[in-house]
Amino acid sequence: MIWHILLAVVALIGIIALIASTKPDQWTIQRQGTVPGAPAKIFPYMDDLRKFLEWSPWAKLDPAMKLTYGGPASGSGANVSWEGNGKVGVGKLTITESRPNDLVRSQFDFVKPFSCTNTHVFALKPEGSQTVVTWTMNGNAPFFSR
To answer: How much of the chain exceeds pLDDT 70, in percent?
Structure first.
């Protein structure tokens, strides 16, 4: 009886591993919204990390988190490291590309509660008196997370 149970468990693990191996090793999430105003009005809230954290939903999860800023005040090279509660963890965000009123690309390096590196992009497109903001985040999907 024990051998049958053990064989069933091994078979189940094998089936799960087979299914996981067919899943993509990259993931992407994209959202889009419209914000009143021209890109020049919105861009500073994405390019200046101090302003970014004023509206970021992650910052609201732990108002007491410790923040350390580095590099220039805004644009490429600007970065912020954080240490917070279990909801926000520990990590670093670095702006890797900044094109005024058009795009901000960043690298997220998460340390806790898990380690990973993801890319984060805000793209701005004027549409009349509003701006379409497209947020894209992507990263690797290790075998065990698939």
So the answer is: 93
